[in-house]
Structure formats: C-alpha cells, structure tokens
Amino acid sequence: MSDVRVLIAEDDREIRELLRAYLERELYQVDTAADGEEALRLFGQRSYSLVILDIMMPGVDGIEVCRRVRNSSNVPILMLTAKDHEVEKILGLSMGADDYMIKPFSINEVVAKVKALLRRFMVLGNEQNQPESPQLVFKGLTIDSRSYSVHKNGAEIALTAKEFELLKFMASRPEQVFTKTQLFRSIWDSSYIKDDNTVMVHIRKLRKKIEDDPSDPHFIQTVWGIGYRFSGEPE
C-alpha cells in the first residue's frame, strides 16, 4: 500500500465510490466524505497527499472547504464541477484550487489528473509542513528570496519589491492559475480590488524584464478568461 492518502468529498455516492475504487487500484489510501463538514473533520484528523472536492455539496460546499483547507495547508486540490462556467469561480473564489474536472468525466482522466498533481507536488517539494525553499531555479531563471534577487541566464535583473513578490508568488506555484483578484489580494494584501489594471501593469513590466519576447511569453502565461500562470522548466 502506498503512503499516498487521498481525501474525496463528493455527495454522489456512485461517483464517490467509483473514484475510491479506481484510486485504491493505484494502491493509494483513500478516505471519503459525503459532504463538506465531514471532509473538514477528516482533514483535521489526518495528513493527506491530495484532496478531491465536488463544488456542489449540501451544507459546506467545495469552495468553502477549499478556502478553509488553504488556510492551513498547501496540499494539492482537485475540484469537480458539473458546469463549465464555474471554472473561473473554482480557480478564483476558492483561493487555491490546483486543477479541475468538468462532469461528466472519465474516471481514468481523473486518475491521470491525480497522478500529475502528485508528481508536481512531490517534485517541487511542497509537501505539507515542509518549509519553502529560499531559491527557485528554472531553466534560464533563478529567484532568490535570501538576496531578494532575480537572475536571467546568469545576469541579474532589477525588479521593484512588488514585481519580485508577484514573480516569487507565482513561480512558487508553477502551473497554478490565478485570477487578477487572487493575485491582488495575495500581493497587495487587500480584500477588494478596484482596478484590474494594477495587476496587469505589473505583469506587463515583469514580462519586459524576464521574457525573451514579451509578446509571446514563456514564463508568465495568460489563461484567457481567467488570469495568469507561471510556467517554467525546473533545473
């Protein structure tokens, strides 16, 4: 049996048990919850490698469970939704979902997503309670929190404090999609954003400094209709 333990919160019993069966075939340990309250209770009792949350559950929904989990853990979270237009809500208001699946889905596709999230999580060393590395190293780009410096292909790049914080925040969570509101709240420490232009201006300035071609960015990519993500090849 693997040391990987997965928590599934899904009010549809058939889907819940099907997910459990397929993940147990991968030798993962699996706990299940039929609602958000039960999921939070289980999460408080055990350490999990990954959490799967249905967005629509009675009582405490998946968005609220995600928010509460994120207050104490950076465990990977996969959201399940029955509606395509809820994707922005999942990635924005949940403040930290790592990926999503839209119903109806193939169980094999969910298993593949789980494996991909676990690989990313383990490779980056972001397991629960593990301290954040002072240096983030990608092919062509190094971000050092100790010296508050950024080097591109060995040459130091001058960034403002907010540009550095924004870059570090995104780079420490590669491939995770963030809305403008989420970035603003995280970097500018505000619960309300009056103008998306603040984030857009800083993204534009960062691209001019770290990208070979700002009009075709490699590191800071736009996810149309949602926001931005950092994509870099670890070294």
From TrEMBL:
It is found in: Cytoplasm. SUPFAM superfamilies: C-terminal effector domain of the bipartite response regulators, CheY-like. Residues 133-232 bind DNA. GO terms for molecular function: phosphorelay response regulator activity; transcription cis-regulatory region binding. Transmembrane segments: none annotated. Pfam families: Response_reg, Trans_reg_C. GO terms for cellular component: cytosol; protein-DNA complex. Keywords: DNA-binding, Phosphoprotein, Transcription, Transcription regulation, Two-component regulatory system. It comes from the Bacteria. Residues 133-232 form the OmpR/PhoB-type domain. Residues 5-118 form the Response regulatory domain. GO terms for biological process: regulation of DNA-templated transcription. The modification 4-aspartylphosphate is found at residue 54. The keyword Transcription regulation applies. This is DNA-binding response regulator.
